[in-house]
Each structure stands twice: as structure tokens, then as C-alpha cells.
């Protein structure tokens, strides 16, 4: 990323807190969005695994996989993230040519309750994290098995799905400084717990 990029946090403009409060946390309120959140990315993986069995045309397989990955990138970035977890991110360039990364987060309701369904949140993050990891495994497999022609397709999967993963993690935890602070605090807490446990064992 360009060091001159600005980071801006804004509120999601179209959040409907009243409807969210009335809904059950375990209920899937957006079944179509939940379906397509997994459909495109899982379909791309299935086509990659089975394409050599279904057809001998590498071009047809490559185009199909890239189309599925592109549809997945657009749907997750613009639709399913906003509906399922209340997050959205994008990059915009101002009149001066400076790049701005904008991260949206749905406002918390007046009672302080969560506005996202827990079931939808699990589906969203499970699909968002698992699929890029699978494409990374495919990348190493293609590299070590010398399948050079498939390497470009696999790299495309890693880049597109990894970009969404990175963007939504930034939406969730904030800026890079906050992410570093969280990691530092976590390590500090783990070290403190280990030290206290050691002292307790020595005292006993």
C-alpha cells in the first residue's frame, strides 16, 4: 500500500437498527445473501478441482473460475458484508490524486445490542477465512507440482479473496496501528499469565 494513503472510518448510512433489534440473533435474516456468499467461492474451488475431469479445455476452465472469483469478489465486497455483518470497505481517489481507504461499520443500537445475526456472522467469517486458505494450499500445490499454467488462476484466487479478507479484518479491528496494539496487548497478557502461573507453582 502507498504510505500516503489515508484511512477513514464512517458509519453505515443505511443500517436499520429497529428491525435488527426485533430479529433473533440466531436467525438467518438474509438467506439469499448467505447462499451467494458461499456459492461463488465454493463453486470456484469445485470447478478448479474437477475441471480436468469435466473438460479438456484449459481456457474454458480458467474463464469459468475467474468469472466465479470476480462475482464472489463483487458480491462479498458490496453486498454480503454489508447485509450479514454490517461492514463494508472500498478505496477512492480524491481530486488531488490521493488514495483513501474507507471502512464502514454499522452503528450499534441505542441499547448497545448487536445488530447482526450470530448465525450469519459465523457463515460470513467462516467462508471469508477458509476459502483464501484453500487457495493458498492450491498455490503451493501448483508450484511444487510444476503446474505453471494453473498458477496464474490460483494466484488470482488468492489475490481476490485475500483482498476481501484483509479489507474486512481492517473493518473489524480498525487501522494497522490498532491491529498492532491488539497483538501487543495479547502477547503481553499471555506473558503475564505464564509468569503468574510459574510464580504460583514455585510458591506451592
TrEMBL record:
<feature type="transmembrane region" description="Helical">
    <location>
        <begin position="150"/>
        <end position="169"/>
    </location>
</feature>
<feature type="transmembrane region" description="Helical">
    <location>
        <begin position="31"/>
        <end position="50"/>
    </location>
</feature>
<dbReference type="GO" id="GO:0016192">
    <property type="term" value="P:vesicle-mediated transport"/>
</dbReference>
<feature type="transmembrane region" description="Helical">
    <location>
        <begin position="123"/>
        <end position="144"/>
    </location>
</feature>
<feature type="transmembrane region" description="Helical">
    <location>
        <begin position="56"/>
        <end position="76"/>
    </location>
</feature>
<dbReference type="GO" id="GO:0000139">
    <property type="term" value="C:Golgi membrane"/>
</dbReference>
<keyword id="KW-0472">Membrane</keyword>
<comment type="similarity">
    <text>Belongs to the TVP23 family.</text>
</comment>
<dbReference type="GO" id="GO:0009306">
    <property type="term" value="P:protein secretion"/>
</dbReference>
<dbReference type="Pfam" id="PF05832">
    <property type="entry name" value="DUF846"/>
</dbReference>
<protein>
    <recommendedName>
        <fullName>Golgi apparatus membrane protein TVP23 homolog</fullName>
    </recommendedName>
</protein>
<keyword id="KW-1133">Transmembrane helix</keyword>
<dbReference type="InterPro" id="IPR008564">
    <property type="entry name" value="TVP23-like"/>
</dbReference>
<keyword id="KW-0812">Transmembrane</keyword>
